Amino acid sequence: QVQMLESGGGSVQAGGSLKLSCRAPGFMSQQCGMGWYRQAEGKQREWISTIEYGGSTTYSDSVKGRFTISRGGAQDTVYLEMNNVQPEDSAIYSCKTITPGRRCRQFNYWGQGTQVTVSS
What we know:
By secondary structure, the protein is mainly beta. 0% of the residues lie in helices and 44% in strands. The radius of gyration is 14 Å and the shape is globular.
């Protein structure tokens, strides 16, 4: 099991930007795709973005055009650049693999997440 380590959250005003990071050492060498998810208070966790091992990306309609997923770094980090954030983006953001099967199962665990709070 690999502990996901999310960071970069904080408080920001509507229209502002944040860049979140998720360290998951080894996910590139294991050829795993990764996804970002969020859970707002009182709501179910929702998927918001994916980056496949091959590099293709997808986004939920709620963040398309505002958020950008990417990856890199020596520590195998997945990033989520958030622009023009809105109060409805307030949530705990977490990452996890989106690749099923044994090869990537060590990345199939939730970390602590990072809190994003957007004020109007």
